[in-house]
Structures are given as structure tokens and as C-alpha cells.
Amino acid sequence: MNYPWQVGKIFEIFEKNGFESYIVGGCLRNMLMGKEPNDWDMTTSALPKETLEIFSSLGYHVIETGMKHGTVTVMIDGLPIEITTFRIDGEYSDSRHPDKVTFTRSLTEDLARRDFTVNAMAYSDKTGLVDLYGGKEDLNAGLLRCVGDPELRFSEDALRILRAFRFASEHGFSIEGETRKAIIKQRDGLRAISRERICSELLRTLMGEFAESAVSEIVALSLMPCIFEGYCDDFAPPSGVIGTLPLRFPTRLAALICNFEDESCDRAISSLKMSNADKTAVKGLLSAVRFLEGKGFDGIITARRFIQRYGDCVSDAVLLAQLLGADVEEAKKHLEEAEKTVFPHKISELDIGGSDIMELGVSGKGTGEVLSFLFERATEDPALNERSTLIILAKKYILENLK
Length: 403
Prior knowledge:
It is a single chain. The protein is of the alpha+beta class and 403 residues long. Helices cover 51% and strands 11% of the residues. The protein contains 20 helices and eleven strands. The protein is elongated and about 90 Å long.
């Protein structure tokens, strides 16, 4: 196994103090797949306080990440390594978190609580790979299978359902038959999961290399109503679109919900608890696509206004509209022509500002009104965006409309 020297240091320190330690979880899975781990997780027979005392006494920075659940993070030369004590999870009354955890000295008991076989392996230099549930075989087969009873696993934590599709999207796994049946039986448990967690898993699913097939499975197993309120079958996402789009969450989410009615789109976007920037981007993309699917452009001025309104999402909107079957060739021609000219994309790019308008005797709302007029004129004829010309136009507008 090729792992950082800091992980080897953890092995060494625990062994000297009489404790077992193993690499576990996603980092081990990725190593076995020949992929670079994003972070490093280890498990140990040492209790959280023992881990804390051992590494603190050696001068390492130790963060009490989640002592209640047995987790501390040890920083070694800038690398954070999350270490969790072997544990047994209690009941999951909220379908998300165990009511309590019991620490154990048994790796076997710890691995039994994990979600999928490919995540339920452990490795140390001393023992080699510990694989009690056929995780490596499933990994080689590209199969995602629950540890133990799949219905129990999903009833404990319904978010594991979306994690299954996230892993399928990121790694190309297919979901094993009994695990698939259990997802169908336990899917309503997703309704109790926080919208933040739903959005987080959905984001990673949409950004995966195999997002198209993962989304198709989500739809096929009727999970969409558990993710989006007010969903109906008529809203099913278009086939063959998401995986063709750039790796941008707002763009792929827009494709996922583009068949929703406008009101349902707004509800879906609001319910996911994403950032305001992402909400604005998704709404902008959908609005741009609707425009492109409708009347489209009647010339270069409309194209400039389109660019002004939709900014950075223009190219994604054109691509998405095209993938959805809209004829965008005329729009692309006008957009390309518009981009060849220098025109103000926003009011602040005018060669005149609010203080200049105020010097002409206008204040308050009148200032904005004059600037909006000048912005429109400079959009129609970019050559007008020159200070002296704009001053003349402003004076004329003020005289005719504000005096």
C-alpha cells in the first residue's frame, strides 16, 4: 500500500503503545482502486482519550473532532488524519445518527456497523487487508452491496441511500439486487433527512463521472419525490443530457429540474438549502434556457441584452438548450457577433457614473433612471459609450423627461 509517511507514523506510534490501528473507509477503497484519496481515515483500538493523550504527549496538534463518537484528528506535518476508535452504533431513532455509540476493542464489531462492503475493509502493515464482507471482490466487480441486512442499514441512516448513488456516480458502481430492493422499501426515510445533507449528496452525485447513469437510477427507483417536494413523473429529467454538460453544479442541477413547471422549479431550488450564489445561477440558467426555447433572438441587440442579463451562464445555457432540442443556431450566430464588439455588460461599465449625473442637477431615483437610459442606448450602439457623448445624451434626456 502506498500511503503518506504520516500514516506510517500513526501505525508506528500506536504499535509502540500497544494498540491496533488501521486505514479504513473511502481512502482505503480509493487506494485499492488506484485512485488518490481525498483525505485519510484510520481506526484504532485505543479509546479517544488514549489517542488524545498519546499524540498530545508527543507534541502533535490534536483536534477533538468528535470525542462523543470516538473521533480525533491528528495533524502531522500539515496532514490531518482522522482517527476513530473501534465502536458499535446503537439505535438510530432519527434515521440519521446513532442514539449512542459504544467503544470496543474489536475491529470485527467496528466493521460490522459500516454501510457498504467496499467501505468495510481495513488495512495495516502488520495484518494486511482485513476484508470480512467481500469488499475487494465487490470492488473488482464494480458492485455496491450493503454490509449485512440492507433494509436495516438504510433504516438506520436513510442518507446512505443517496450515498449509494453518489458512489455509483463517482466510481461507476452498479447497485446489487438486494441493496436495490432495500432502497425502494426505505426511500421514504429520505424525507426526514436535512435539506443541507440532501443537497450535499446530490451535488457530489451530479458532479460524478457517471452522473448520467446514477441519475437514471434515482429516477427509476422513484427517489425524485423524496428529494424534491411536489415532484411528479412529468418532471422526469431528460435522458442523455446531464453527463454531457460541464462539471458545474448549477448547470447540472438546472438540467435535472428543467422539466419542472416554473413554480415547482422555484420550490425545488429553495428547498435544497444551497448557497444564494448557486440558487441565482440555477434560476438564471433556467430562465435563459426558457428564452432560447421560446422566441429566441431577433438580432445583435437582443443578443447583447441576453449577455448582459445572463452573464457567465450564457455558454452553458446555449449548450443545455441545444441538448434539450432547441434550435439555437441563429442565437449562436447573433451571440458570436455580439461578442465581437465591445459593449457595456453592466451599468458600471458606462463611461459615466452617478456623480456625473448628479452634477447635472439630478438626484435620487432620477440618477438611476438616467443611467438606465444611457445603458440601453450604449447597448443599442456601443460607440455611444464615450463620456462626452453620454453627457450630451444625459442632458437631453433630463431636459425632456425630468424637468
